[in-house]
Amino acid sequence: MRKTKIVLSVLLFLLLAVALGPLALPSSFYEERLGPVLQRMTHGNVKAGQINFEYTPAPALIIRNVVLDSDPAVGQIERIVVPVNAYNVFNWGKALRNVTIEGGHFSPTYALSLPQRLKPEADTPRMADLGLVNCSVAVGKRDLGPASGKISFDKAGALAEVMLSDQENRLELHIEPKDAVFALTLNARNWELPFGYPIKFDGLLLKGIANSAGIVIEDIRGDLYSGIVTGNAQVSWGSEGWQLSGVVRTNGLQSEPLSMVFSNSTHISGRMVGEAKFAYHAVDYPQLFDSPAIDATLQFKDGLVHNLDLVSPLKSQGGNYGGGQTRFDTLNTLLQVRPGTVQFNKIAIEGGKFRANGSLAIGKERKLNGGFAAQVSSGSLVVSNQMQVGGELSRPQVRTGAAYRPRGGEASMASPQETAPQ
């Protein structure tokens, strides 16, 4: 019993010595020794603003205000936390575990060079893992992040993978170094696009390859408004600025929630199938989506054009009309998006005994300009009319002339070219 008490007392003394020992040494002791070690571990210059110990919530060595490569634009870290735990104490100088970087901000070049930066040397401690808390990467004049996660290393100490997630845990990014490139897998849930229009995906999966010049997204798969989105894309950056291009295909989307992203009042309901090719170019990332170039082929089935009635004016003797709706079985169109304008060309609408052909442009201040040749038939009676569409996207105005009722053998419908926007 007495021997047991002696053993327990010795163990308690050793634990107290481990916990209180760091207080007996000045901070300069750690600065002189940690500086060279950190530089060898990161293969670059590392300058720490302050080094001290904290004992709550757990004993840890805290390194504050770290600047990488003598340039905050290259990289800076608010805090590096090195736990004073049994593993780190008994493997001091050989290995470290549960180290955390908090508030890290890195340049893209530094982030992409991490496998080389953290490549183990024979005389430096090997990392078992490295935690990341609220870290970000500068992209142009903006930041990607903040994100949190973990960097894992293999048995030889080389970087094996990086796992990141956003603050809401809706976005997860898996990065795996492969020779001179990185394999990327991004999973998103209930995620809204951070650029352009607020389109929200139920689920999104991206797979691709990245290097210092850009990213090739080989596979895009998304669940969007009860339909499927697939495609591929590539983004590049460098001396010629930023470029993004690719193609996406949709199948079975509910078009109403998608079209209401652009206008709550004037929109299209029904099922949508389509393919779109897109290209963006800008000097810097923040301006990348300011100059769109999108060409799409779209088909809508079994729906309504809300806030635009092309049927009632056929019964009139002229005048202006607003509001209402147009039911259709199919609506086909070619879409072009350019800076300041959206153009719907070769619009073809069919719904029961009604059909219409035309085009429509949405210009500056969301002004409408377009026209349709439309007709409705009932037995042997066929009524046709030319319609001009103006006003604003939120309040379209349809203007018609007198309805035309052709006699047998006469042309019943004008060519769509006659109704092109003025």
Automatic annotation (TrEMBL):
Gene Ontology annotations of biological process type: regulation of protein targeting to membrane
Chain spans, region Disordered: 392-422
GO cellular component, one term: plasma membrane
Protein name: AsmA family protein
InterPro entries listed in its UniProt record: AsmA-related
